[in-house]
Specification:
Strand 14, helix 9 and strand 15 form a beta-alpha-beta unit. Helix 3 crosses helix 4. The strands form three sheets. Strands 3, 4, 5, 6, 7, 14 and 15 form a seven-stranded mixed sheet that branches. Strands 10-9-8-11-12-13 form a six-stranded parallel sheet. The chain has a two-stranded antiparallel sheet with strand order 1-2. It starts with a strand and ends with a strand. The longest helix is centred in the C-terminal third of the chain and has 29 residues. The radius of gyration is 19 Å and the shape is globular. The chain is α/β, with parallel strands linked by helices and 336 residues long. Pfam families: ADH_N (PF08240), ADH_zinc_N_2 (PF13602). InterPro entries: ADH-like_N, ER, GroES-like_sf, NAD(P)-bd_dom_sf, Quin_OxRdtase/zeta-crystal_CS, YIM1/Zinc_Alcohol_DH_Fams. This is Enoyl reductase (ER) domain-containing protein.
Length: 336
């Protein structure tokens, strides 16, 4: 099969299209999926760069966790059959497995995928799972969000754009940090109540009222600047805090991340606000089923920054690494 894979850590150029890569082998309980679309998530290029524990990354490595496509093979008696349109997360985007979703075929466990809601394209569906499930799982300890005040950092990106929509669907008041060029997007398209242009204003000064929930997608000093803004009964959701990794590198960074996360959780347990660190669980029962209902109801939308062919996976990583992606980047592997 054709697949975009890297055999050494490094810049986007190490991600190369290979046309004779072995197909993955389906095990019991898994589906073999003919991939139509996959989407780009920052963890994909962080893995390629080696900004994760390198010893756990099997190489050669096909990146990608999100998948939308057609069932090719399933177990006898499975709830899925060949030809079904499905989407989900295969759970192999980082550790141990060679096989991600930047390929013509991928495997995923049955409990990690769902039927694509009617009216949704493969490209749109592929953009949802990892980012939207991460947002859902981070916010879940604070649910229901009806009447609560929520601050989402980096609201114009993949996870942030879903976090805003999920909070609004549940009746929350939502503020978000973004650049000035994205202010209209986060308010008019995503529904945020307040856009805070971080280039012109400190988010601490945007409103005097405390928040019930802060969703932090940036890390670094955004964390300690955000904590005083929370009610004592509030919740700080740390999502794969990358500030330490960028500042201190792949060795010292994870150690500092572990220390500060443990400290935050301990302090939150003693005096509040509650502090949680989210590592996304890929099974559909951890939010994807609820998200599919929002998709069906028209309460969750996808903004696709750009669609690129599989052969341009390296270019997609270059674009994603700029940090200026509005919504999601999608790789179209096959025609719909």
């Amino acid at each position: 099969m054709a697949a975009a894979a890297f055999r050494s850590f490094g810049p986007p150029s190490v991600l190369q299209l290979e046309t004779d890569f072995p197909r993955p082998t389906r095990r019991k309980g898994e589906l073999l999926i003919k991939v139509v679309a996959a989407s780009i998530n920052p963890i994909d290029w962080k893995t390629r760069k080696g900004d994760v524990p390198r010893f756990a990354v099997t190489r050669p490595k096909i990146p990608g966790g999100d998948v939308a496509g057609l069932v090719e093979e399933a177990d006898p008696g499975s709830q899925f059959k060949p030809g079904d349109r499905v989407f989900g997360c295969n759970g192999n985007q980082i550790f141990w497995s060679t096989y991600g979703t930047y390929a013509e075929y991928a495997v995923a466990h049955e409990d990690s995928v769902l039927p694509i809601p009617e009216g949704w394209s493969f490209n749109e569906a592929a953009a949802v799972p990892l980012a939207a499930m991460t947002a859902w799982q981070a916010m879940q300890p604070s649910m229901p969000l009806q009447g609560k005040r929520v601050l989402v950092h980096a609201g114009a990106g993949g996870v942030g754009s879903f976090a805003i929509q999920i909070a609004k669907a549940q009746g929350a008041w939502v503020a978000t940090t973004c650049s000035g060029r994205n202010a209209g997007f986060v308010t008019e398209t995503l529904g945020a109540d307040l856009a805070i242009d971080y280039t012109k204003q400190k988010f601490e000064d945007a409103t005097a009222e405390p928040y019930d929930l802060v969703v932090d997608l940036i890390g670094g000093d955004y964390e300690w600047r955000s904590l005083p803004l929370l009610k004592r009964s509030g919740h700080f959701a740390n999502i794969l805090n990358s500030g330490f990794l960028h500042q201190y590198g792949p060795v010292k960074g994870p150690a500092l991340l572990t220390y500060y996360t443990a400290r935050g959780m301990l302090l939150g347990a003693i005096s509040g606000p509650r502090y949680t660190f989210t590592i996304m669980k890929h099974q559909a029962r951890h939010g994807l089923a609820e998200l599919a209902e929002l998709m069906k109801a028209g309460k969750l939308k996808v903004t696709i920054h750009e669609v690129l062919p599989l052969a341009e996976a390296a270019k997609a990583h270059e674009i994603s690494e700029t940090g200026r992606v509005r919504g999601k980047l999608v790789l179209q592997v096959a025609k719909e």
